[in-house]
Design a protein that fits this description.
Blueprint lengths: L2 E5 L4 E13 L5 E12 L4 E5 L6 E6 L6 E5 L1 E5 L3 E11 L3 E11 L4 E5 L4 E5 L3 E6 L2 E5 L4 E5 L3 E6 H8 L1
Antiparallel strand pairs: 1-2, 2-3, 3-4, 3-5, 4-7, 5-6, 6-8, 7-8, 8-9, 9-10, 9-11, 10-13, 11-12, 12-15, 13-14
Length: about 170
Amino acid sequence: SDWALLRHETLTWEARGRVRLAHGLRSGDRIEVSGARAFYDQKTQKGRLLPAPGAAIEFRRTPVDGEPDQGVAAQLDWVGQDLVRLSGTVHVWGPRLELWGGQAEYGAAPGALTLTQDRPVLRLLERDWSGAVQADVITALRTPERLLAEGRTRGWIRFKEKLEELAR
């Protein structure tokens, strides 16, 4: 950042200017985010990153083996390594997925990505299939691998082998 302040008595941080945060996940993936103002409370492990006026925060998730996913949002909040929430106009894109919504929240303990607000859309690009869903609430679970859509729901799934069969 261009400017940072640590208040020793409360163990709170504030940073301004070109704020860049980087974090390595247990999986080996690397997260990098940038914005204009950051706040962090060491005692509660709660933090917030905000963009400059009229701008968005930018982020990138680079897996150990593969191309990065990137995105933009109006705000990033987190609690330790357990919970990350992107809010405002959220857009994420990359080789594995693309999503849009008003809020995207990732809970590490359940391994769940939950999309809410503004009728979110999730488009998945897997090796053997691809699909997209729009709903009031979308939850993608890591283990077991499941995709749940609640409320008014619409979408599609295409299986690669079926497409190859139809092309013959």
